[in-house]
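Mods, move this if it's the wrong board.
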Amino acid sequence: QVQLVESGGGLVQAGGSLRLSCAASGRSFSNYAMGWFRQAPGKEREFVAAIRVSGNTYYPDSVKGRFTISRDNDKNTVYLQMNSLKPEDTAVYYCAADRLVLSTRPTYWGQGTQVTVSS
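Not the wrong board. Structure tokens:
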């Protein structure tokens, strides 16, 4: 069982930066693939970033070059550095986890953290 707690959301102006953190409880964090998803009002939840057990990272085109996912296995934490934020990045951001490989419908989810980008 893994419990995920996100932090770091807030209000930022367009062009600004935020760093989200996701602290994981439970054993063997290094054996879990981690990811970030987001959901804007009236829209479906969408994939934002993923990091494999190996450390390989993946992004959709909408955030590639602006967002960076990383993990610190000693701290059981995954991060999402978001730069050059745009108003369309406004959403609730969720941390997710799966053992070994992140699926399209991850098993474990955090409660979400709100990110609001003003124009």
